[in-house]
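Listing 4. Sequential folding, example run.
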Amino acid sequence: MFHKILIANRGEIAVRIIRACRELGIRTVAVYSTADREALHTLLADESVCIGPAKATESYLDIKRIISAAVITGANAIHPGFGFLSENPKFAKVCEESNIKLIGPSSEMMSLMGNKAKARETMINAKVPVVPGTEGIITLADEAYDLADSIGFPLIIKAANGGGGKGMRVAERKEEVRKMFSLAQKEAVASFSDNGMYMERYVVNPKHIEFQILADEHGNVIHLGERDCSVQRRHQKIVEEAPSKALTDKLRKKMGDVAVRAAKAINYTNAGTVEFLLNDQGEFFFMEMNTRIQVEHPITEMVTGVDLIKKQIEIAAGLPLNLSQKDIKLHGHSIECRINAEDTSKDFRPSPGTITNLIMPGGKGIRIDGAIYNGYTIAPYYDSMLAKLIVHGDTREEALAKMKSALGEFIIEGVTTNIDFHYEILENPSFVTGDYDTSLIEKMKV
């Protein structure tokens, strides 16, 4: 087992990893920018190292500085969390070359699954159902225009090395293809420094269902059920729940088996997520595989009782999974709301500032993953997520009632948050019945 882990991240996920390490008896190193000198992860870790100024490219995205911090402190492993360098194959490669274990898959695996076009081709070869689309990478708008008819409309144009909803545009008609391709490609270059694109048929108003995978270095692969991530705004998830009300036991087993087959086909290791689109006919299609821990991992932990961060660390240390598929049972229902510092009345504009009053909810089945405290100043340089509010109930109805109660107790003053917007979602008739898809927020006219 590792003796010291450096956390190459910030905010609530860094705090989450520190807590898991404490329980495993592992010392931790936090890295922080000058803007995060008083951040909770900086204060909680056994050691803290400043790696640069507030700008992420000069701190949390600076590979040399993070590796240097690991070497100086004697950390023999790095947990990248999510975002920042968590799916960066170059970072993974440098860790390998520096004899520092990255808690995640190999650089080769990140490259394969990070390139959406290559991942798609790999899944086709593994007989995993995919949405009809292009083969290989496209870099020219004219080429996209010529291929559009063979895919059909509407179609979606995506960054080959993208994520987080960036570098994506939908073309409803052929005459829109060149324009949408150029817009998506421009955003892809700005966000990922890569102009490679691909296209696929746009599945209208699907369910976004993802399966959590754990795979050790000894060939054992299991899934831990699904998460329904269909409540999205501009491809950004807002509310997630597990399990999905849309899946029968039969469909859950079928999709879970496919997710495991996908992971096995590429000899995947560590935690990962296989994401699917599910249409109203019960057909599902592979969308992508995330090679990191997900923001929404707590709801899977709540319904399975498995600590995913601990499992990541144990797998990276070479330990075999002490779980088999038959050990995984889903108990009750869990919902997660992402609490962001943003003004929903002003197109969800970020709302940085200082928290002047903070009261957090509590009680049985209520969990908060966060990194905020009274007097904490939210910097404008990073993601606007303040905390994740997670609840668990014996039934979906109980979980829903518990979440609404918890939101009512959650007081954050000094900055504007999206707490009231979560009420609107939870009280939407389609969400209440579970009969919703990725168009829910759009239909709410937000």
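-- end of first protein; second protein begins --
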Amino acid sequence: MLLNFFVLIILLGVIKILPKLTHPRILIYLVGILFIYLINIGATYLETSSLVPRILKLLQIAIFYFILKNSNKLIKENPDDFIRINKIYKFIAPFYMLILIVAFIANVIGMVGLSRFLFKGILTSVVLLMVLYTSVKIITSIIVLLLKLRTKFELQTVTTIVDATNKRFQPILFWAGMLVWLLFTVKGFEVLEFLMAWIDKSLHLTWALGETIISLGGILSFLTIFTITILIAKLIASIFLDDWMVSILPRGIAPGISLTLRIVLISIGFYIGVSSAGIDLSKLGFIIGALGVGIGFGLQNVVLNFIAGLILAFERPINIGDTIEVDSEFGIVTNIGVRSSNIKTYDGYEAIIPNGDLISKKVVNWTLSDRDRKSKVLFRTASNVDPKEILELSNTIGLNNDSVFKDPKPFTYFKGFDENGNLKFELWYWTTFSEALSSKHIISLAIFDKLKEEGVVAPTPVRRIVKDNGSR
């Protein structure tokens, strides 16, 4: 009785909160589940031999079938309101609807015990799924609210941390909740003990490889530990690559920590996994020797790129977001991996560069220490103008450009005469790397328009063809 009371209180809380966190139309289906639960509690006080409990059970099954069918349709129509749960629910709902049909038929033909058993398992599973999903949404919302109340953070920092919470923390809670739900669902259908006994029996299957005995449980243990380690390493490493973490830590530290953690965690996971599989690492000397021979003959580049990745992580000559030029590739570094790094070129394609090339070859990093760049605009005029007026005009155009630094001021140099007798000028100015190309375009157009407005004639190359008749 006390357990039913607590479940009833929790269901009332879910009915109050979940529609506000997802979609308002889910309310009617939640109320329907509450109604089913109340009928289920009331039916326990009726005589099981009478016809009334069977009729009530048929009514519950029919209502539950209607709820699963229509709620599944609602979630499919509004996937953004039911993130993550929509992909799981679209498989769960049809399966549970099929079980409800079996329970309905079992009740009609007199197999009342089977009908109650199937219905109870589905009801427990669905209620638990609702509670766990609501809990995940509530915990995430509380964390986001607390972050927004932290006034010492800038608005942009709070926004990036909130996005990271929804992107990283909420999936962890969700999948942890799914594991709990799966465990209690299996227990609700009363097959947990049978399943555990079957798994225990299967895990003791063994094979002998020389002096080493390998069991199915050891293999599964290795695969499980290694897979979980890779997922954890990827999750933790990706957290350090989020914008909010990159902005908090000193420049280049976050990618280095990310790469180092990935290598360390995967190495630890592999060692623990091999040990849990029952393999004596001291007897793997021949494998290590063979690996050394393999490295000597064919894996030099792999090891070189791996070591180069470690050097890039600790020395940090290149960081994610830097604009670099190596060989014929010119673009922005988007990823620094264990073996290779990715560059998003300005032509739009991804260039995969081995880490060894980033260490051994000449690399031009345009944004390592700062993003300030010195640029120049070259132009010529006819020889019949006053160079001093052109210098003043050019300097004024440079100062009026918003992307040009005012300190140091832009300055124009008179370079003398070219081979055709025209005057040469160079406007030098400082701007940011991202504004270098656009500022040069805008300033060049401004100089052209101003010269045209002032009546200054631009030089026009003249070519003469001289025919030499010659004399014999």
